[in-house]
Amino acid sequence: MARHAASRRPAHRTLMRAGLTLAAAGAALGAGGAATASAQPLPAAAPAAPPAQLPVPLGDLDVLAAGQALTGALPYATGPLKNLQLDPLAKTGVDPLDNAVGTQVADFQPVSTAAVTDPVTEGGTLGTLPVVGTATGLLPG
Predict the structure, then answer these.
(1) CA gap 70, 78 in Å, rounded
(2) This model's pTM is above 0.85
(3) How many whole angstroms separate alpha carbon 79 and alpha carbon 106?
(4) One digit per residue, pLDDT tens: the chain, 141 residues?
(5) Interior CA angle at 18 toward 14 and 20, to 5°?
(6) Which end of the chain has a smaller Cβ tally under 10 Å, C or N?
């Protein structure tokens, strides 16, 4: 046996044993934590307060103003989501979604999946998807 091959095996076994020991310890800690959490009794539920003892009377709530505030803030929440790139690896050489398949039988028109996969693999957003794009036009923002 060569000298370089003999020196690697003990280090390899040591690293493998250390990794297996750490994995077993992590699994034991995870299982122990789950068993402890499941063994705890549930706290007693507090009785619900009757409507007469509420700290804020319901007549003071301005439902119309709350609804206007919500609809005013909605474009700020949905706008970035509509313009977010769906595939972070789009236009790279390692994009796993860039996998269009096509075929042609005899003299019929060729059929391909590129019409479905291209909007995503070209860095598209929700608005560029074939079916979902028209529905996102209904969202504000």
Answers:
(1) 12
(2) no
(3) 47
(4) 566 555 555 667 777 777 778 777 777 766 655 555 555 666 776 666 565 555 655 566 666 777 777 677 777 777 777 788 888 888 888 888 888 889 999 999 999 988 878 888 888 888 877 777 777 777 776
(5) 115
(6) N
Q: Which two tokens stand for residue 25?
A: 């310890």
Q: How far is CA 39 from the centre of its chain?
A: 31
On whether the CB atoms of residues 125 and 83 are closer than 8 A, the answer is: yes
DSSP structure string for 8-37: HHHHHHHHHHHHHHHHHHHHHHHHHHHHHH
The token pair that represents 130 in the structure block: 């074939």
Q: How many residues does the chain have?
A: 141
Residue where the block lists tokens 């301005």: 62
One-letter identity of residue 124: G
